[in-house]
Specification:
The strands form 4 sheets. The chain has a 7-stranded mixed β-sheet, sandwiched between helices. A 4-stranded parallel β-sheet has the order 9-8-10-11, sandwiched between helices. The protein is an alpha/beta fold and 380 residues long. Helices cover 39% and strands 21% of the residues. The N and C termini lie far apart (42 Å). It is globular and about 65 Å long.
């Protein structure tokens, strides 16, 4: 059973409500299915809808139907806060999934922590789980981990002097700061540090400055949205003959389409096993869940699976696994069960949480990928 709610400028629109079940488990979600972060939230929204329907059609979770109450916050932190409050006080959910962006996550998190309701975020910033908060978890790798994975690859290639161009949005600014903080650990010096507004339509000036700086051996672009695609196109137009690295924030086929196949050729970034499900080695614990989710999503929605929907997939798997093990819908019991999760293979990584670790992933969960012939190639 599901209840999916979305907001327009002035009102809420109920998209679907099934008949009541004799017993149900209520799960809430606030997702940015529309608005500036829709390219992230749309596959998350669709994924949660699909997984709930699949589980209910198969008999539910331990015999009980899942009731998903899902709101579209449009990427607005204030709406996300309102919906989190509504989910807890009116809809009486046992847990919340959502926070497509760091901004909406922070709003939901404050409400969930005050109410002591488990919350699994779908956003990337390290600040979500550092410091650890009792009721907040998340599924994506952190921006700090992305920096470390990129610098690890640069170190293997002998790259030591880097130009960086970052978006000034929350994601870009956070990853820029994290990359600066860990670069020295890998013998990497950030020689030039340029920025752009996410609304900018051309980054030629910044890239020209980077190209003209002596000794630059590679360029790194922390950012998401359309900015990295523009950077990639401008990079090709300027014929900069240096390796270009992007962030995990653009790990989707949509990035290749926006940037253009020719311009994106050779770009490297840290991504998830989901993007290279057919390239995983036999015995890889993520092979089966990645292949199954990819097949199901693409058959149902007729669009390529992507990293962001994968974050929602893993949040749902983590939550339902915890509810089953807890044998309870009490928020405190669910929280304890999530924190005790060990060796749970998702499409983003294999999760093992702990009282001092509410991410549950290490650097091995990232795969270094390169775009070749318009697709993703595993290079490690």
């Amino acid at each position: 059973m599901k209840t999916i709610l979305t907001t327009t400028t002035a009102a809420l629109l109920a998209l679907g409500v099934a008949a009541p079940a004799s017993a149900e488990i209520r799960i809430g979600a606030s997702i940015s299915a529309t608005g500036p972060a829709a390219f992230l939230g749309d596959p998350e929204f669709k994924t949660l809808e699909m997984l709930v329907e699949q589980m209910n059609e198969a008999g539910g979770l331990d015999g009980e139907q899942i009731r998903l109450v899902m709101y579209d916050d449009g990427g607005d932190p204030n709406r996300a806060r309102t919906f989190a409050t509504r989910l807890i006080e009116d809809d009486e959910v046992s847990a919340i999934i959502g926070g497509t962006t760091t901004g909406t996550t922070m709003s939901i998190m404050s409400v969930a922590e005050d109410a002591e309701v488990p919350f699994i975020s779908l956003a990337g910033a390290i600040d979500i789980i550092d410091p650890v908060r009792p009721y907040t978890f998340k599924t994506p790798h952190t921006d700090r981990m992305a920096c470390e994975k990129i610098f690890e690859d640069m170190q293997e290639r002998g790259i030591t002097r880097v130009g960086m161009i970052s978006g000034t949005d929350g994601f870009g600014a956070s990853m820029e700061a994290q990359c600066k903080d860990v670069a020295g650990d890998y013998g990497v010096e950030i020689v030039v540090d340029a920025t752009y507004d996410p609304r900018d339509a051309d980054m030629t000036a910044q890239l020209t400055n980077i190209r003209n700086t002596d000794g630059i051996e590679a360029v790194l672009n922390p950012g998401f949205g359309q900015g990295p695609s523009i950077v990639t196109r401008n990079y090709a137009q300027l014929a900069i003959d240096l390796p270009l690295y992007q962030s995990h924030g653009v790990a989707s086929d949509g990035f290749i389409e926006l940037a253009g196949q020719a311009a994106a050729e050779g770009v490297r970034l840290p991504g998830t096993a989901l993007l290279v499900a057919d390239q995983l080695a036999d015995g890889d614990p993520q092979q089966a869940p990645a292949a199954a989710y990819k097949a199901d999503f693409e058959e149902r929605f007729n669009q390529p699976v992507d990293t962001f929907g994968g974050y929602a997939h893993d949040a749902f798997v983590i939550l339902t696994d915890a509810i089953s093990r807890a044998g309870s819908t009490d928020p405190s019991d669910i929280r304890d069960a999530i924190e005790a999760t060990e060796g749970l293979a998702g499409v983003t990584g294999v999760y093992t949480f702990a009282p001092d670790d509410h991410l549950g992933l290490d650097l091995s969960a990232f795969r270094m990928l390169e775009i070749k012939d318009g697709g993703w190639t595993l290079i490690e």
